[in-house]
Amino acid sequence: MSVPRPEAAVLDRIRVGSAPDSWGVWFPDDERQVPWQRFLDEVAGAGYEWIELGPYGYLPSDAGRLREETGRRGLRVSAGTVFTSLHRGPATWDATWAHVAKVAALTQAMGARHLVVIPSFWRDDKTAEIIEDSELTAEQWRNLASGMERLGREVRDRYGLDIVVHPHADTHIDSEAHVERFLDATDPDLVNLCLDTGHYAYCGGDSVKLIETYGERIGYLHLKQVAPDILADVVRNGTPFGPAVAQGVMCEPPRGEPPLEPVLAAAQRLGVDLFAIVEQDMYPCAPDAPLPIAERTRRFLRSCGA
Known about the structure:
Elements: E1 14-18, H1 36-45, E2 50-52, H2 63-71, E3 76-84, H3 93-109, E4 114-119, H4 138-159, E5 162-165, H5 176-185, E6 192-196, H6 197-202, H7 207-213, E7 218-223, E8 225-226, H8 228-237, H9 241-246, E9 250-251, H10 260-269, E10 274-278, H11 290-303
Parallel strand pairs: 1-2, 1-10, 2-3, 3-4, 4-5, 5-6, 6-7, 7-10
Antiparallel strand pairs: 8-9
Helix pairs in contact: 3-4, 7-10
């Protein structure tokens, strides 16, 4: 006799979307990436309503044209994304702001309210070249915290956006210890977190524990899973993140870790509206690979109640 599957939880505070990353898009322009028109067609066809901008310049940067292209496909933008190197101190501010301002202006024009901020890599994600030490000095931690607070204030005051900082493999905000140190050093009124479940698991963290401990700092979610067997090989060999992705370390749910049902349930218990954007790192990938994965992932998330 078959055992009936428990009814899915009601996740009425979770707004599900996807992103160019799930179509193998990491760069504004790359011959191994699908054209942006195909991404928009397929992400809408897979059943998603919300998308991120992805790397600035991949989607049209003219807000009028982008509104037209997304609107006729029934899509809306949840966030833009920027990369920063604020641990290097005030000398990096002008260059950082020049980049941030462009992305923030487009994000605002598209009606979104979040800017995902990814710290710079200490190891190049294409070449695996070591760029700088993987551990920050005390002064660099102070620079990082104060720089993110300044960024949060400026982005909020000038563009009405909230920054959510994305812990990421091969950056200085990665492991549980580094994430907690960063959160404890920054003002919650200015800086919150984009919790990427896959990156956090990749770096040994527990997403449910983080949500339950620092729930008031969780402003945004990226849904992602890691393949445990491939991750074990990556850790054993010290493989850089880019080559690890090429090996398939990020996999489609529900095949990997962490289980997403408890993560979504913990996020729902926070009692606030949260975006949960699917991001399965797949660069590079065959152009026909993303759509069926995206369709299966959307069906899985619906089965979870999202």
